[in-house]
Design goal:
The chain has about 60 residues and is mainly β. Helices cover about 0% and strands about 55% of the residues. It has no helices and five strands. A hairpin with a 3-residue loop joins strand 4 and strand 5. The mean pLDDT is about 85. It comes from Zhongshania aquimaris. This is CPXCG motif-containing cysteine-rich protein.
């Protein structure tokens, strides 16, 4: 089974679609990544579940999550 998975969401600033490659073997994670379109920092929160797979939540850098 390949642990690398592609997930999609939208930038909380400009609304453009973003695609991220995530490593499911790493477990839950959270980090900051710049939007490829508007270059603003987004907080990325990843959750992994064996049945559901990966879920992603994307927030503006200073939003509470």
């Amino acid at each position: 089974m390949n642990a690398i998975e592609s997930v999609s969401d939208f930038c909380p600033y400009c609304g453009e679609a973003i695609e991220l490659l995530v490593d499911g073997s790493a477990g839950d994670d959270q980090y900051i990544e710049d939007c490829e379109v508007c270059c603003r920092p987004m907080s990325i929160v990843l959750s992994f579940d064996e049945e559901e797979g990966v879920s992603i939540r994307v927030y503006a850098e200073n939003d509470a999550y």
